[in-house]
């Protein structure tokens, strides 16, 4: 494998030294491009009290291409599909090499605080979120309790 | 005996080598330059770079039968003073100086002895500020700058006193090189031209008719060319500083966004601070090192994310999404290697065809752009002779398009089993054609082949000008039904 670019080393160091509140991102022992991420559910959101595991991978041409991020912990959210893929513009066409792992994780945290069922990527969760928000929030809380609170 | 001859030969060989190397040493100290006179003749002279202009005048005067005091020597927009040493001017081998005979016997202007050629007068202050950077005054009040320690400020000021570098794409060297700024008469293109003022920014250099001057080649004609409606203007151009000048028509394209990193700004991608940077044309100091810029171009090219700009051509903007930040001079993409620069051209041509409502030949390896009347359904490719149906891009057929999956929008499905007779098919071509179809499907809106990279059936056309949201399964626009039925396959 090619040497790790200085940019990745710098970002990793900074993530270790000044972690983002509520987020931990640790590189894998065997692959420095693969990060084990834990995001705590934001206060006053249906995900409060949950610990959500994610995986983050920096592709070969990072930072020209966006990191690949996926929720491992099941989550009831209109912008996250059942395989854990996230609908977030900065992970797709709004990606810019000036953005960093840190900004991506912060945006994911923000997405938990403010679900967006009007985003063109939506499913049955989004439908419910629009027609019956209180029931959707109840579901989200239930999933958080069931999948994100044990261990 | 043989040994004797051999050692004798060796001695001769060493002597010859010494001779050659000493000769080479001599040549290195000689500058061959050309002197163009206003009478139209060109003198070729060899000089020592330590000569001053006075000595040049003496040399030229004796050759053209004039008095040294009658001559003006002009180079890069300036009359050179007698005390200027050739070495101080940025002359390369085979550069051209202009000798102009003064009509009236004007006493030597004292100030002219201080005159230096254009390239020497330009210092960093003038060119370091971005043309769009009208905020240069607010620079010092910027919070970030205030925080910079004194030592860094000092360092910056010493950097500022360095000579400016221009970067060019040289068509002769076929590479990015440092360039030299030169000037000539806008009307008659003669280099015997002196400027009235130095250019202060890139607009003065890149846009026509910004700086006035005096044409010494043909003052009467060039002054009166428009019946004095306009002054005589300077025309700036660039030369490559690395190869020996190939004459007056030898020019290089200025790459104005490649600059010395005077403000020591970090590359937004790798976070290194390099000496030479690519500065995006936005006011926010968004820069990349050249390696990252090349990588950025390559990634955007592969993703077909270049834009067809109506004025500039196939280009990119600042990756941070700054408004109006398109790269105007598309020769910057010459930084791509040959193979990818060819791809760039290819994609640009395709994009142009698509924007003109044309079609691309669907044959693998062809992709010829075809402009056909909108009502014409039988399209024939002039390049590979393939004749195909406008709607389904299969071999031309009469009647309905052969649609495999149920589909309300007829003709948007590719069928692998359609009539291959039209391809006068060799099996290898057919095989690759089938693979291409499995891996990619054409965007229903613009027909650009799109690869499916993940599990999601929701496709967004990667072509920058299209961005159509469509469904991999239905090959029509993405709908809520698609989300419910087969979002993940
Ligand atoms: Zn060159
Ligand atoms: Zn002229
Ligand atoms: Zn860089
Ligand atoms: Zn910008
Ligand atoms: Zn063709
Ligand atoms: Zn058809
Ligand atoms: Zn498209
Ligand atoms: Zn569908």
From TrEMBL, chain A:
Pfam families: UQ_con
Catalytic residues (UniProt): 87 (glycyl thioester intermediate)
Ranges for domain UBC core: 3-149
GO biological process, one term: protein ubiquitination
GO (cellular component) term, any one: UBC13-MMS2 complex
SUPFAM superfamilies listed in its UniProt record: UBC-like
Membrane-spanning intervals of the chain: none
Signal peptide: none
Family to which this protein belongs: Belongs to the ubiquitin-conjugating enzyme family.
Protein name, per record: UBC core domain-containing protein
Classification lineage: Eukaryota, Metazoa, Ecdysozoa, Arthropoda, Hexapoda
From TrEMBL, chain B:
Signal sequence, renumbered to the chain: none
Protein name (record): E3 ubiquitin-protein ligase parkin
UniProt similarity note: Belongs to the RBR family. Parkin subfamily.
Catalytic machinery residues: 456
Gene, per the UniProt record: LOC115879800
Pfam families cross-referenced by the UniProt entry: IBR_2, ubiquitin, zf-RING_12, zf-RING_14
Catalytic reaction(s) noted: [E2 ubiquitin-conjugating enzyme]-S-ubiquitinyl-L-cysteine + [acceptor protein]-L-lysine = [E2 ubiquitin-conjugating enzyme]-L-cysteine + [acceptor protein]-N(6)-ubiquitinyl-L-lysine
One annotated GO molecular function: zinc ion binding
Compartments reported by the entry: Cytoplasm, Cytosol; Mitochondrion
